[in-house]
Structures are given as structure tokens and as C-alpha cells.
Amino acid sequence: MGKSQSTEVPSQDEHNEYDTPWRNTPWGENELLEKKLKELKLSDPNTKYVRILVIGAIGAGKSSFINSVNSVFQRRITNEALINKTSDSRTFTKLYKTYYIRNGQSGQILPFVLSDTMGLESEDLHGVHPKDIVKAMEGCIKERYKFNPSCPISSQDEGYRSNPTLQDQTYCLVFVLAGDSISRMNEAVIEKMKYIRNKANELEIPQAVVMTRVDEACPLVKENLRNIYKSKKIQEKLEKCSELTGVSLSQVFPVKSYHKEIDTQEDIDVLILRAFADIVQVANDALEIKSMIEKTNE
Ligand SMILES: Nc1nc2c(ncn2[C@@H]2O[C@H](COP(=O)(O)OP(=O)(O)OP(=O)(O)O)[C@@H](O)[C@H]2O)c(=O)[nH]1
Ligand SMILES: [Mg+2]
Question: Is the N end or the C end of the chain the one with fewer CB atoms within 10 Å?
């Protein structure tokens, strides 16, 4: 029986799937997306790279996303940022660490870096302190600082940087949210994210959301990643991400990170590149504004 017969009870998939995707994805255009990023010129010639700060709840997939961006450019799976493969209920990443991305062909370092952070947790004395995220946005946290959940960094700490340069500051704050657990997000973690977002707004730092684990969030997507914008479930979850973070839907991107694959795959790469290209663009625009302000203040 055809779909047009109204007496037929629609199958589960018919309820869950749009006929046409609600957002365009440049499937197959990996090289073009990658080329644009590799050729990016920073808006401030005196700055070597724009910093993208990655934050989110414990186990949301922050470190995996950073590794996946790196894997795309290396064209092989990389695991530089250690990921949480245990069922431990505590955040795995404990250090503030910057990841440089290299052009896989030339070996040259590209003009954008990703900073990984400790996960946010519901309890007050666990997970990264939201004030530390604010200090990281301001560029006041030195490389490899070990986050202390019970006490935010102070100017007396060794890991504190008192005179951050433009390069140390954040130009895009990326919230990483796990698509398969978005509806169960803890209220206390949501409150911590709100606090961070308000501070990011005060600092005029643009924000984006990367929704990971899309394969676990929707069976249609697990079957074929190209169903991503046909899936109503994914659409609802992206809207929820926007609602929880206050970030506009146009800046919310679904990705599947590399987690068990042994080779990179075109479709996985496209979603990552599509999200990352926007994040880098927004960051570069913010750098332009900050460097102009700095010049006028000189
Ligand atoms: N299926 C699937 N698993 C993923 C994806 N992204 C991450 N994972 C898995 O989710 C788990 C947590 O990932 P991490 O990258 O360590 O998460 P994190 O946010 O860095 O965690 P903490 O450092 O502990 O706060 C790991 O087992 C990953 O393999 C994804 O897109 N799909
Ligand atoms: Mg981590």
C-alpha cells in the first residue's frame, strides 16, 4: 500500500522522518570545506590562531569532538585528547589543554586551536568550577592547569596568567551536548551553563552548540548519517539544545564524533567540517572586533 492512503497507520519511520531535509548539508564536498579552512586568513595578522573553548557536561563528548576535528585534517583517526571509555561517573579530562590542528599534507599548524576543559557536574564540589571557565575565556588560565573543583583559580595560583594576550583569549565558546541524553540533563548543570553563557555575553564571546552522539540519539541516523536533517527526533533535540543554552538554532550543529571507527569517513567528516567552518568563521569575526578595540585603546 502506498503512503497516500490515509486509512493506513503510518509506520514508525513515517512519523519520524521528513521527506526532504530541513537543512542543506554539503555531502561529498569535503575537499572544498577543508580547503576553505586550510586557507583561512586570520582577521588580525599579529595573531597566530583563534582559540575555541570547548565546554559541557561530563561525558558529553568534548574530547572526542576535538579528536574528531583533528582526525578530519589528518585523514586518519587521532586520539590526542584522552577520552572517557570507562563508566566512571566523574569527569575524565582534568587539565586545561590546547590542541593544535595540523594540515595533514603540509604538516603546517592551522590558525585555529581548540581548548579542552574538565566536564561540568551537578554537584558543587565536582567537575569544573564555572568561574574557571570564565577565566579560561578571558585567557587567564595557563596551559596544563589542573582544574580544582573545590576552588576556582585565583591570581595567586601558578596556573594564573595576569596579562593575557589576544591569542590567549577565547573567540568562540562551544557547548558540547550529548544528543542521546539531552532530555535528561541535570538542572544544576543547566544553571552552570547559563552562568557561563551570561559571562560569555558580557565578554562579547560568540557561542555555538555541537550536539554529539547523534548515532545514539536516533536509529535513522545510526542507519545512515545522511538522514540527519530528515530525522524529526534530531530536529527536536537540536531545538532543545538551543533552548537550554540560549544559542540560536542556526548555531547548533549535530555531529557524530569518531569513537570506534578505524578510518575516517566522508559523511562523518562533512558534518564535523560544516560545524567547524561556522565556528571558526564566527571566531575570526570576533577576533577582528577585539583586535580593533585593542588598537584603538593603544
Ligand atoms: N556513539 C558515539 N559515542 C560517542 C560520540 N562522541 C563521544 N562518544 C563516546 O562518549 C564517551 C565520552 O566521550 P568523551 O569525549 O570522553 O567525553 P568528554 O565530554 O570529554 O568527557 P569528560 O572529559 O569526562 O568530561 C566516550 O565513550 C566516547 O567514545 C559520538 O558521536 N557517538
Ligand atoms: Mg574529556
Answer: C
Q: What is the 3-state secondary structure (H, E, C) of 264-288?
A: CCHHHHHHHHHHHHHHHHHHHHHHH
Q: With beta carbons less than 8 A apart as the criterion, state whether 241 and 183 touch.
A: no
**Residue 169 dihedral angles phi and psi, to the nearest 5°:** -80, 165
CA 193 centroid distance within chain:
14
Beta carbons of 281 and 208 less than 8 angstroms apart: no
Q: Which domain holds residue 211?
A: 49-297
- Name all residues whose Cβ lies below 6 A of ligand 1: 56, 58-64, 83-85, 91-93, 119, 212-213, 215-216, 256-257, 259
Q: Is residue 17 part of a domain?
A: no
CATH number at residue 88: 3.40.50.300
**CA of residue 254 to ligand 1 center, whole Å:** 14
Whether 56 is in a domain gets the answer yes
What is the distance in A from the centroid of ligand 2 to the CA of 119? 7
pLDDT tens for residues 48-84?
A: 999 999 999 999 999 999 999 999 999 999 988 888 7
Pocket test for ligand 1, best of 66, 117, 257 (most atoms within 8 A of CB): 257
Any domain includes 35: no
Report H helices in 120-206: 130-138, 187-202
> How far is it, in rounded angstroms, from Cα 175 to Cα 236?
17
Q: Which numbered ligand comes closest to the C-alpha of 189? A: 1
Q: How many domains does the chain have?
A: 1
The tens digit of pLDDT for each residue in 80-130 reads 888 877 766 676 889 999 999 999 888 999 999 999 999 999 988 899 999
